[in-house]
Amino acid sequence: MQPALKSWLPADPGAPAPGTDPAVLARHPALASFAARLGNTPVVALPRVAGEARIFAKCEWFNPTGSIKDRTAFALVCDLLSRTSCPERVLEYSGGNLAVSLSRLCADLGLANTLIMASFMSPAAIADMRSLGTDVRLVDKSLGFWAVMEAAYQTAERHPHWSFLHQHENRANLRIHETGTGAEFVKQLQRVDGQGVSDVDAFVASIGTGGTLVGAHTALRRVYPRVQMIAVTPAELPYGSAALPNGLPKYAGSGGLGNGRKQPFVADHETRIARKLTVRFQDSLAALSQVYAQCGLRVGSSAGANWLAARHVARRLGPDAVVATVFPSAATPSEWTAAMALNKRDIANAAVLDENGEETAP
Ligand SMILES: Cc1ncc(COP(=O)(O)O)c(C=O)c1O
């Protein structure tokens, strides 16, 4: 039996930021070297559209292995190494990017690791992880992400001495997005046009674990108390959906868990969510193509979804407002190929939906 998803306490504002314990960094030089390359990612101002809010996006593919999940991997491993100096084996599940980050970080640190993920990962990515020494275990992709999590719970039960990182419940994940992603974003927004933006009206982010959405929003609202939280998930399985988990293609890194389950970090802060939006996989690819045409950035499908949602919110808020969002990764080769194969009409018609899958007016 897998443990039910339970919730941790809300992030403790007094807790030290992950990765700041000098004793842990001194014991593990590879961790210090990863930390030196992590974060401080650039923020871009997206091209302005007359009558719409300004949009700023934080470009997370500048992290060491190319995604926002490097922050999560670093936080989870720092947390582990602050409690155990010599773990027998690290165990975790992943939608893809966290596995790439953990595989690299564990190889650098010489930590044995077992990573469980769905079978949609490209053979090249799996081969790379295996060449770094990772024990990669694949779960049939048609069963959906919940099956991947269940497989990890069962493995953790069979191997109680392994260190199960448990990204959905380990609050080091939430905390790094508050002290890292969100705190950096605030500083960067305070430098826009020399004097900084006067307010931030909305923060738009997709939910994987919800670490990015809730953690970064926590940092932003400390300085911009009116900032709305806008949550985005795939239309094929929105956040909190009562539908069964499914293996339908979805934009990267995100999604509901099915059967009415909710990501604990988000469930704990649900009253802060101003709007829940969803984006179909095909539309996230169309958006990726729009971002490339308008900004020259080859962003991934979740960045495409965030862009569509941010544009939608920017239209509603009007020209005096400011919207902040994240671009979690760059396009994978398969996302890029699929996006480039779309026709002009599909690209132009990409839409944002409400949480029931209905097209939502701007
Ligand atoms: C590629 C990728 N990784 C991670 C995330 C977010 O993950 P989390 O909610 O766990 O912070 C997203 C969400 O947009 C994503 O697209």
Q: What name does CATH use for the topology of the largest domain? A: Rossmann fold
Bound molecules: pyridoxal-5'-phosphate
Rg result:
19 Å
Most strands sheet: 7 strands, mixed
The number of distinct β-strands equals 11
The CATH class name of the largest domain reads: Alpha Beta
Total helices: the number is 13
Order of helices and strands: HHEEHEHEHEHEHEHEHEHHEHHE
Which residue ranges are poorly predicted, with pLDDT under 50 across at least 5 consecutive positions? Answer: 1-13
Strand order of the largest sheet: 1-2-10-7-8-9-11
The global form is: globular
**Count of folded domains:** 2
- CATH architecture identity of the largest domain: 3-Layer(aba) Sandwich
SS class: alpha/beta
Share of residues in strands: 5-15%
Distance, first to last CA? 44 Å
- Overall mean confidence score, pLDDT: 93
Offer a few descriptive terms:
single chain, 362 residues, alpha/beta, Rossmann fold, 2 domains, seven-stranded mixed sheet, four-stranded parallel sheet, 13 helices, 11 strands, 41% helix, 15% strand, globular, disordered N terminus, binds pyridoxal-5'-phosphate
Task: Give an account of the 3D structure.
The chain is α/β, with parallel strands linked by helices. Helix content is 41%, strand content 15%. It contains 13 helices and eleven strands. It has helices spanning 22-27, 29-37, 69-83, 97-109, 123-131, 145-158, 171-189, 211-223, 264-267, 281-295, 301-317, 333-340, 344-348, and strands spanning 43-45, 54-59, 90-94, 113-118, 135-139, 163-164, 202-206, 228-234, 273-279, 322-327, 353-354. Strands 1-2-10-7-8-9-11 form a seven-stranded mixed sheet, with helices on both faces. Strands 5-4-3-6 form a four-stranded parallel sheet, with helices on both faces. β1 and β2 form a beta hairpin. α3 crosses α7. The radius of gyration is 19 Å and the shape is globular. Pyridoxal-5'-phosphate (PLP) binds at residues 67-69, 97, 206-213, 252-254, 300, 302, 328-329. Pyridoxal-5'-phosphate (PLP) is lined by residues 67-69, 97, 206-213, 252-254, 300, 302, 328-329.
